[in-house]
Amino acid sequence: MTRRVGVYPGTFDPVTDGHMDIIRRATSICDHLIVGCARNAGKGPLFSLEERAAMVREEIQDLGPERAKKIEVVAFETLLIEFARSVGASFVIRGLRAVSDFEYEFQMVGMNSRLNPEIETVFLMASETVHFISSRFVKEIGALGGDVSKFVSARTAARLKHRFAEKLKIAASAD
């Protein structure tokens, strides 16, 4: 039997409960899941690529040893389809929250299938308890001093709080 390797790519800035929902569920459809942390400098990440990959690795441990041993976290800076090919993945997993996600993802699938028709894309709908969570909103809430603990783990909430405190300190010293 062929080993089913899937890639779940994202910026994970920060990793949210929504991301973890998709990661947890993706382990049931593949033998090995590679969570690909993308550099994506265009999004202006709050955390470095290394920090984001480390956060995802920490969160994966909470999924339990059986699931965790099926998951690998890898940082990448190439085209997604090239990354998937380089790690031997036969499919890419994408999470969908809303119809607006589908429109963007549908276009990406078309482009990726032209680049490599052997790599499929599988969509997982976000669970009803997390479908509204986005890293962008979590960062906005955290930057304004709001409580993000309903959207991320306690570990990630603490990292966000610390990062925003650092930014305030830097801004205050610049004045």
Determine Rg (CA atoms, Å): 17 Å
How many helical stretches? 7
CATH uppermost class: Alpha Beta
Which stretches of 5+ consecutive residues score pLDDT under 50?
Answer: none
- Level-2 CATH architecture: 3-Layer(aba) Sandwich
**Could you give me the name of the CATH homologous superfamily?**
HUPs
* Mean pLDDT reading: 92
Proportion in β-strands: 15-25%
- What's the end-to-end separation, in Å? 63 Å
Outline? globular
* Sequence of secondary-structure elements: EHEHHEHEHEHH
Structural class: alpha/beta
CATH topology: Rossmann fold
The residue fraction in helices comes out at 40-55%
- What is the strand arrangement across the widest sheet? 3-2-1-4-5
Count of all domains: 1
How many distinct beta strands?
5
How many strands, which pairing sense, and closed or not: the largest β-sheet? 5 strands, parallel
Describe the structure.
With about 180 residues, this protein is an alpha/beta fold. The chain has a single domain (about 5-130), classed as 3-Layer(aba) Sandwich (Rossmann fold), CATH 3.40.50. It has helices at about 15-25, 50-60, 65-70, 80-85, 100-115, 135-145, 155-175, and strands spanning about 5-10, 30-40, 70-75, 90-95, 120-125. It has a 5-stranded parallel beta sheet with strand order 3-2-1-4-5, with helices on both faces. Strand 4 (about 90-95), helix 5 (about 100-115) and strand 5 form a beta-alpha-beta unit. The longest helix is centred in the last third of the chain and has 21 residues, at about 155-175. The protein is globular, with a radius of gyration of 17 Å. The N and C termini lie far apart (about 65 Å). The model has no long low-confidence stretch (mean pLDDT about 90).
